[in-house]
Amino acid sequence: MDIEYLKPDDIEKRSMEIIEMEMRTNPPKKNKEVIKRVIHATADFDYEHNILFSDGAVEEALKTLKEGAVIVTDTNMALAGINKKILTKHGCEAVCYMADPEIAEQAKLRGVTRAIVSMEKAAKLKRPTIFVIGNAPTALIRLNELIESKEVAPRLVIGIPVGFVNVVESKEMLIRAEVPYITSTGRKGGSTVAAAVCNALLYML
Amino acid sequence: MDIEYLKPDDIEKRSMEIIEMEMRTNPPKKNKEVIKRVIHATADFDYEHNILFSDGAVEEALKTLKEGAVIVTDTNMALAGINKKILTKHGCEAVCYMADPEIAEQAKLRGVTRAIVSMEKAAKLKRPTIFVIGNAPTALIRLNELIESKEVAPRLVIGIPVGFVNVVESKEMLIRAEVPYITSTGRKGGSTVAAAVCNALLYML
Lengths: 205, 205
Prior knowledge:
Chain A is of the alpha/beta class. Chain A has helices spanning 8-22, 29-42, 47-50, 57-67, 76-81, 84-89, 101-110, 114-122, 137-148, 167-176, 191-204; strands at 51-53, 70-73, 93-96, 129-133, 156-159, 181-184. The first copy, chain A, has a 6-stranded mixed beta sheet, sandwiched between helices. In chain A, helix 1 packs across helix 2 (29-42), helix 2 (29-42) packs across helix 11 and helix 9 packs parallel to helix 10 (167-176).
């Protein structure tokens, strides 16, 4: 065993050097920053090939964040993973409606997921919005429907749910929607990944 | 595209069936429940081979949770991912000291990570404790040292940090420590994985 005692900032710097060294692709600079941050959060180099960006997605995200955006997440876990310090500094805020009692009540009544109901609530926000979906394909599917029917026009959708039922389909639906997106192909994703994408954008500000 | 409209409970049931079908190993029943829950949270079948348990780790965990344990996490993200409803029902609680102002202050003063300082604080708890480390190898290294010097005797350590610097070493150190553990080999892990392990245990209660 060979533990190197590094300072916190140096640990991150060294990690990023290792990731850079081991990456086998060379995506455009800003996309690469996002991909590196995801690999940093998962140690999974599959994401080098999995993460997909619509044209200019990162630029659109940075512009929106500079205007003071609301970030809407589909889980409290993704919400907890987002860097609040940078967010607040730029007049942005992050919200998640999943734990609201009225969301749970309505979901039960309708026999749908809480994720669906919380997306419908978020669609009514009047500020520039970035959606961050790391867990629930049902949230992403409902959001895609709301985009299609022009009930919401997000500035960016970070749509990276994880799982085995309707996950791949929900991502394919996002890619066809008329909205800037960052997504992942296949089943992989998660709150950690979605939060990492979001933080990569915040660190670029 | 072929979206199946399933009810929330059925989505989870179907997912678990798919995981069960695609798994290529057949670990002991209780360990398998944990592994399936991790694959459910990551869609990464590497964990089928990566997750390691000390003998009787799951049984020890269940016993401890029934006594009313404190679960200590190294990130607010892992904390957010743990099922509080079941936790509270069994008289357990979960804490994370990372965001405490005095932790940040002491870490800065000593030039160490906040994760280290928060482990030292948690080591002073007087109740049966389960540590859940999904992010910071520095937290796991410090915890291993505290176990070695008999300053703390956790009932279980879920030690699954992710990353590139000292992560593998911190897990090898845990495997050698005299403490029940659930860990993962290699670089992979994360808050999602650690929370999934924790929830798998809670669902078994």
